[in-house]
Automatic annotation (TrEMBL):
Keywords: Aminotransferase, Methyltransferase, Transferase. Residues 12-278 form the GCVT N-terminal domain. Belongs to the GcvT family. It comes from Cellulomonas persica. SUPFAM superfamilies: Aminomethyltransferase beta-barrel domain, Folate-binding domain. GO terms for molecular function: aminomethyltransferase activity; methyltransferase activity; transaminase activity. The lineage of its organism: Bacteria, Bacillati, Actinomycetota, Actinomycetes, Micrococcales. Substrate binds at residue 211. This is Aminomethyltransferase.
Amino acid sequence: MSEHEATRRSPLHDEHVALGAALTDFAGWQMPLRYGSDVAEHTAVRTAAGLFDLSHMGELWVTGPGAGDALDRALVGNLTALAPGRARYTMICAPDGGVLDDLVVYRLADDDAGARYLVVANASNVAVVRAALAERFAGRDDVTLADRSFETALVAVQGPRAEEIVVGLVDDASEADAVRALKYYASVPARVVGIDALVARTGYTGEDGFELFVPAEQAPTLWRAILAAGTPLGLVPAGLSARDSLRLEAGMPLYGNELDTTTTPHDAGLGRVVKLDKVDAEGAPLPFVGREPLAARAASAPARTLVGLQGLSRRAARHGYPVVTGSGAVVGTVTSGAPSPTLGHPVAMAYVTPEVSAEGTDLAVDVRGRHEPVRVVPLPFYRRER
């Protein structure tokens, strides 16, 4: 299927079909929703390991002697401060401070042409991010932007046994040691079952784990090797449903739910990613898109706050449900919600007014006309033992 068709297929599509996956349309891609039981896949990631196809994500390469400076001006983070081999969670914002997308940016080893960065965007926003970066880089001859999303496959191994599985598949002993030694939000190139891969210790589940970027045509070989090596250790293939419940337990935002163009990073409790102290080569404050509105937002009282909600009954809150007080006054809206397989009760994230955002506050969610009790609790709901 060509990149121009309405629904795209992952390079691993045939693998998913062979495994009996239930497929769904997600951001214009046909992706596995589940292979069997959502709860079983979720639990495997928490107790052993899960294998995810993330090939729908976007990979944008930003290279050249001015790459770091160009990204510093385009994004809210300080990317020139990122050491080669490290990664950073950041955002690209509109001029008014609203979030266009949340990103992971990897700085790879510099080469003769200058710095090399890999910008990973959400599947639904690749075109938006690509267009925004192109516009923000316009007129510069010291930076190049290349979209390699359709040339690249991305698979993730997440869970307590992820290191054992991934390291065991690295061809060279010294490279295996380098993968084992990776810090969180770091990456290293390595040959994995004969495939040149960028191996990153990142993820979206709240567990330890790795994401492997490989050429699209070689993804099936890698997928089968990971399954073969991991299955005896409890690894299972996991779909989008388990990925969503895992990230919710870990309190990680999802674009379109917790983040959108009407939301600033500060609204989502992520003001730390906005680096207002960035400076240029002369030491002057560095202008970046959205800087003034974000500075004003950082200095002002919030109109709403993102909180965690613990369900005190069996019915789970869902995206869009109203949050209410005991008197029935609407004080917020649920952004994400589901039963928590790990914790055994429903959990949700919601934007609420500041006066009801304190930990321990009892509220309710209107679940199809019934007010189900909830309590404000800290995020994340789940934190792995380290």
